[in-house]
Amino acid sequence: MIDIEQSLGFGPVREFPDGDYLAGGSVASRSIQPSERSTLNSMRINTGPATISSIAPPLEEEERTPPIIVAPRVNPPRAEDRPSQMGADQAAGLRLVRSPSEEDQRVLRFRRKGHGGPCRSFAVTSGKGGVGKTQFAANLGVAFAKRGLRVLMLDADVGLASLDLALGIKPHDDLRAVVRGDVEIEEVLCEGPEDVHLVPACPGRYDMANMTDSERARLQTAVDELALEYDVLIVDTGAGIGSSAVSFAASADEVLLVVTPDPTSLRDAYAMAKVLHRRSGVDRVNVVCNQVNSDAQGLEVFERLEQIVRRFMSLHVEYVGCIPMHSSVREAVANGVPYVIGSPKGQPARAVQSIARRVLPPTLPKQVS
Fold first, then answer.
1. In this predicted model, what pLDDT tens digit does every residue of 223-277 receive, in sequence order?
2. Which domain holds residue 218?
3. Can you spell out the DSSP letters for 300-327?
4. Using the 8-state DSSP alphabet, how is residue 51 labeled?
5. What is the distance between the alpha carbons of residues 131 and 229, in angstroms, rounded to a whole number?
6. I want to staple 123 with a disulfide (CB 3.0 to 4.6 A). Which of 235, 300, 320, 350 is the partner?
C-alpha cells in the first residue's frame, strides 16, 4: 500500500489487484511496483491537497452483486397502424359516439397524431442528491420547448418527486395509478410552461420507490409508447446507484451526469458512471458541472472526473458545459418558475440553453400540432 496525495480529502488510497483504488478503509492491498510509480505520479494534478484517484470505490462488493437488468426499449406501432378493435368491442363504439366529457377532452389533447420523427431521450442523473439535478432537468426541458420542440418529461425519482415543483405544476394524479393499471399514462399528464408535458411521480410512496422489475418495465414501455408523440423525452432519475435510477438512466439515448465541485459529488459521480458502464453497458456519459464559480472551475471539475474514469474504464465521458452559482437559481427554486423563463438573460439560463444546443443541435424544424 502507498499513500497518494489526497486531492479529495478521503484519506490514504489503497490499490486493489484489479487496478482500482479505495480511499481509507483497512482492506489489505498489494504493494506498488517501482515501474508503476511513474504512472501514478503522472496522474497527479494540482487541484488541492490530493489526487483524484481517491474517488474510485472498491470493486470487491460489485463482483458479488447481480447485474441490473434494463428493460429493452421498444418501438410500439403508432395508433394509426394498429388493427381496429371496433368489430370486437361494440361498447367501445358506443363510447366513441357519445359526447366527450371534460376529462376525455383533456386526455385527447395529449393524444396528438405522431409526427413520424424519432424521439430523442435524455436521462438526467447524479451520483448524490443536492447537486441541482432536478432544476437542471426542468430548465433543459423548457429550453428545448422554447425551440419549438415537443417535450415530454418523466419524473423517475418515483418515491421522492420534485420535478412538478421545479416546473410550477400541481399534478391531479400520479404514476402510482398507472403502475397499478387504474388509468392510462395519458390521463396523468400535466401541462407545464412552454407546453412542456410532465408525467408526475409519487412523493413519499415507499412502494413506488421500490418498484419490482416487472412494474418498472411496464412503466418504461408505457413511456416509450407515449414518447412517440414527442420530439424529446427527458427523464429525471433519482440520485445514486439504486436499481431504478440506473435502469431509467441506462434506457435513455443519452445520459447527462450532473456533478459539482464537492469532493463527495465527484466520488459519487464516478460510482454512478462505473455502474452504468459495467452493469448496464452504457459506453458514453455527458457531464454537466453545476454550481461552479467560473468556466475554468467547471472544466477543472470535469478533468478531475475524466482522468479517473480513463484510468479505470473504457467509458467515454464528454464535457457538455457548466452552470454557475447565481441568485436566479435560488429564485427559481423558491418560486417554482424555471430560470430560463424567470431570468432568460441570466448566466444559468444562457448556460442551459448552450448545453441544450450542444446535446441536441437545432436541426429539427418546429412541429405543428
1. 889 999 999 999 999 898 988 899 889 999 999 999 999 999 999 999 999 999 9
2. 101-359
3. HHHHHHHHHHHHH---EEEEEEEEE--H
4. B
5. 31
6. 235
